[in-house]
Amino acid sequence: MTNPQKFLYPKTIDEALEMLASPDSCPIAGGSDLSLQKSTSFTTFVDITRLPINGIIEKDEFISIGATSTFNDLDHPLVKNIANGLLSSAASKIMDTPLRHQVTVGGNIVGRYWWSSLPVVFLALDGKIVLQSKEETRTLTTDEFFEKRPVHIMSKNELVTEILIPKEVTNYYGDCQRFSVTEAAHSIVCIATSFKKESNVCSNVRIVAGNLIRSPKRLTDLEEMLEGKELTQELIDEISQEAGEKLEKIRNNEIASGEYRKEILKVLVKRALEGALN
Ligand SMILES: Cc1cc2nc3c(=O)[nH]c(=O)nc-3n(C[C@H](O)[C@H](O)[C@H](O)COP(=O)(O)OP(=O)(O)OC[C@H]3O[C@@H](n4cnc5c(N)ncnc54)[C@H](O)[C@@H]3O)c2cc1C
User: What is the pLDDT of residues 215-234, one digit of tens each?
Assistant: First the structure.
């Protein structure tokens, strides 16, 4: 953020969208990413934290999470009910306490990096992302939203206003496991899983890997191994051994080698499936 000239504080979404129509403006939420950026393309920052998009409420068949809710806000009774507390427990383990009070859900999924964790969890929960511009409101599935980088999915003057989690998922089994050098450091592998279990048979299985590339990825080969089956320790061992085998090459990064991360991936898949069961 090397050239900030103006900060604007809209109180309504319409007002914010009007301000974002200007080519030199961009939204700012927690500011933890923008404040580190060196780009000078934007000079006007539209602070969206005063908009009425920070609540967590029930809405028809969904739990709606406002885009400016912080990681800390996810410690909420409605969120704790989702898939064994998958989302609230994941959010409570990422970053340190001051950052968890600052970083927003919307900022984490739009300002996406290889270490971003919430995209992994939202994809596992089969959520929806609501986007609003002056022209339209559109709702994308997480499969659509996380398929490509945000710049290829959203227009510059579009805001993420809420994330919708289907209430049905509330009764699912789920777990999130991440690995980082220290608790507050960027995670180098993250796994989230959720599935329905009826009469011991698993269905609607999602196993998502993140932090390996910029966007989270469903491990569909592993999902198929579990779909329609009973989750036994034997099957967990089998699935975790296959983890990462069908992924394109996992690259080395500044913290760990690709080979090391692949091994960690296997361990985390095992822990996440065991965690979901317990
Ligand atoms: C030391 C450190 C460690 C971190 N570790 C992790 C980690 O392990 N895992 C993890 O997940 N995150 C981690 N983060 C947070 C992550 O890197 C980003 O900084 C954070 O997610 C950005 O959120 P924000 O609310 O501060 O967004 P901002 O900095 O305000 O914005 C980020 C981008 O998103 C856009 N934007 C924000 N909100 C919206 C919206 N509602 N609609 C449209 N566009 C929007 C902005 O225009 C900007 O381009 C870490 C951050 C730090 C500083």
Answer: 899 999 999 999 999 999 99
